[in-house]
């Protein structure tokens, strides 16, 4: 029997629409079973005012992320990946088009942005508090989340006592504390060394499979995109458009050096090089 689940669908206002105080238009919506999309980007364009007038950064982008899907957004530096992610996050508004998400997404960036004066556990508890979790439940939930990111026992550790990889694990736990259906990640592992990054790729894949979250992951690292995603979306530059998409049917666990991963990475790199030759890098 089909279940009816009320969800809050958050849509970022396009030009000509009036957003609420937080910059979004929120429509309470009742749908049958799960939402059809974790994120829906429809004909989105974005311009910024620059010294030479309006600069068109994103041009008519349409892209869906299905519930439970892992999509990587790949492209040359400056092609507009972060701009698009910010629009999905509701941090900015499109110049044209609409962005719809299944609830408010959780965010994770290259910089962990943890509060250094709080312990790992208290950083997570703060996210739980903002979500309205009662005080009596926060400690237990924070410990569970630390266990999920394999940091059992790190509850009382201060940020300066943690390695770069551990900080990103805490940042991941804090993002998961929001219990969003959609996790937006902007190069979260770019500042880590190759070995730590490789380990965190495995962890993220495990957590994604366990939680069945939808993930939209921005990177300019082709190997990372292929290692993680079910679908890789390549953006062109000047302005950013969807240049090509690949469905990655390679079973997990994947390794960068696996033949299928390496072959697809070579194919995508060639395409990316072509994009850079055609449009330059900014
Ligand atoms: N708030 C802003 N005001 C003006 N221009 C902006 C703003 N945000 C981004 N841009 C411009 O938009 C373009 C795309 O930037 P964006 O950061 O989205 O690219 P990116 O693909 O994420 O790059 P990278 O991989 O280097 O992080 C750049 O030319 C940037 O200068």
UniProtKB/TrEMBL annotation:
Region ranges (Disordered): 1-24
A Pfam family: ABC_tran
Record's keyword terms, sorted: ATP-binding, Nucleotide-binding, Transport
Gene3D superfamilies on file: P-loop containing nucleotide triphosphate hydrolases (3.40.50.300)
Domain ABC transporter: 39-264
Residue stretches of biased makeup (Polar residues): 1-15
Stored InterPro entries: AAA+_ATPase (IPR003593), ABC_transporter-like_ATP-bd (IPR003439), ABC_transporter-like_CS (IPR017871), ABC_transporter_ATP-bind (IPR050166), P-loop_NTPase (IPR027417)
GO molecular function, one term: ATP binding
Keyword Transport set for record: yes
Protein name from the UniProt record: ABC transporter ATP-binding protein
Annotated organism of origin: Streptomyces carpinensis
């Amino acid at each position: 029997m089909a279940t009816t689940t009320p969800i809050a669908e958050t849509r970022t206002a396009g030009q000509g629409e009036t957003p609420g105080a937080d910059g979004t238009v929120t429509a309470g919506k009742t749908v049958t079973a799960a939402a059809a999309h974790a994120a829906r980007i429809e004909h989105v364009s974005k311009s910024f005012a620059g010294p030479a007038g309006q600069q068109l950064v994103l041009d008519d982008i349409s892209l869906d992320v299905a519930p439970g899907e892992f999509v990587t957004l790949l492209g040359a530096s400056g092609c507009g990946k972060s701009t698009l992610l910010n629009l999905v996050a509701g941090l900015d508004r499109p110049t044209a088009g609409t962005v719809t998400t299944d609830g408010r997404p959780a965010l994770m960036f290259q910089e962990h942005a943890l509060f250094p004066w709080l312990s790992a556990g208290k950083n997570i508890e703060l996210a739980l508090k903002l979500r309205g979790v009662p005080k009596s439940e926060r400690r237990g939930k924070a410990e569970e989340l630390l266990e999920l990111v394999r940091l059992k026992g790190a509850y009382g550790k201060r940020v300066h006592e943690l390695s770069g990889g551990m900080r990103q694990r805490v940042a991941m736990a804090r993002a998961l504390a929001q219990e969003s259906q959609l996790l937006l990640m902007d190069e979260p592992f770019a500042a880590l060394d190759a070995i730590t990054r490789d380990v965190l790729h495995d962890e993220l894949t495990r957590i994604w499979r366990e939680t069945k979250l939808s993930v939209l992951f921005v990177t300019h690292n082709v190997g990372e995109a292929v290692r993680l995603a079910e679908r890789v979306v390549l953006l062109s530059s000047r302005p950013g458009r969807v240049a090509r998409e690949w469905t990655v049917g390679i079973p997990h666990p994947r390794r960068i050096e696996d033949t299928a991963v390496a072959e697809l990475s070579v194919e995508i790199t060639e395409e990316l090089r072509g994009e850079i030759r055609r449009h330059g890098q900014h």
